[in-house]
Design brief:
This protein has about 240 residues and is α/β, with parallel strands linked by helices. The chain has a single domain, classed as 3-Layer(aba) Sandwich (Rossmann fold). Helices cover about 35% and strands about 15% of the residues. The strands form two sheets. It has a five-stranded parallel beta sheet, sandwiched between helices. The protein has a two-stranded antiparallel sheet with strand order 2-3. The chain is globular. The termini are far apart.
């Protein structure tokens, strides 16, 4: 080193980098179990009674957080109008397939990804059959299950929820103009196909359609009781997965 030359300290970086671009072993073992609730307006918490958002006291992901306790962290990722794989010609940014990878990576490390979609996929303008809707959700769930957003760059577990069935009464509401025909029929049918497809992918599944009902205002959003029951059923399923 030359005279009067400032001393330089060389720091050697010894941490290895995983294939996903993050340092291996950087996760604290005391970190809470982290879970993303990824869905549409029923995860966001749309209140059809006054067109606002339900409070944290009511929304099912927030209720789930309280039931699970301080050893868990629940991350809300709900967006009104979100579809599983379709670009909406009327609204921007609603295709879950193009967003889920950066979404999950931004919240890494994750122990579980919970997906509840399908209600918006029933819209007549998308021209999807019940079978097609199940295919789209399965494709999305497969992508989530192969995203290196788990502990140390591993893949997280995925739980898919089939949403409550759209009530036939929606035909007599203003929302029918936007949704179109046969949404109730498709929302009732696609979980049967979805369950089989997810079994083939070894992805966890919970059908809320035969346990939780939508409200009696627009017949396609959860009311307060629906949020409460959803949180309880999801909690029970999570405990089963983590056993």
């Amino acid at each position: 080193m030359r005279a009067n030359e400032p001393e330089t300290t060389i720091i050697r970086v010894t941490n290895k980098i995983s294939s996903c671009g993050r340092e291996i072993g950087c996760e604290d073992e005391s970190m809470k179990k982290r879970m993303v609730c990824f869905g549409d307006s029923n995860t966001w918490g749309y209140n059809a009674e006054n067109l606002t958002r339900f409070s944290e006291e009511i929304r099912w992901p927030c209720r789930l957080q309280r039931i699970l306790g301080s050893d868990f962290q629940i991350i809300e990722e709900g967006l009104s109008g979100r579809t599983s794989v379709m670009d909406d010609p009327l609204f921007e940014g609603l295709n879950a397939l193009t967003y889920i990878h950066p979404c999950l990576m931004s919240h890494a490390p994750l122990d579980l990804v919970i997906i509840m979609l399908g209600t918006n996929d029933t819209k007549e303008r998308f021209r999807l059959t019940s079978f097609n809707i199940a295919q789209g959700i399965t494709r999305l769930a497969r992508k989530a299950s192969q995203t290196a957003a788990g502990i140390n760059g591993a893949y997280p577990k995925v739980l898919v929820l089939a949403p409550p069935t759209i009530g036939k009464g929606y035909y007599n509401t203003e929302i029918h103009h936007s949704m179109g025909d046969n949404c109730d029929k498709k929302s009732k049918e696609f979980p049967t196909y979805l369950e089989k497809m997810l079994q083939d992918e070894n992805i966890e599944f919970l059908n809320l359609g035969n346990q939780v009902t939508m409200n009696t205002i627009d017949f396609m959003h959860l009311d307060e009781d629906g949020h409460k029951l959803t949180s309880e059923l999801v909690h029970n399923k999570i405990m089963e997965i983590l056993e």
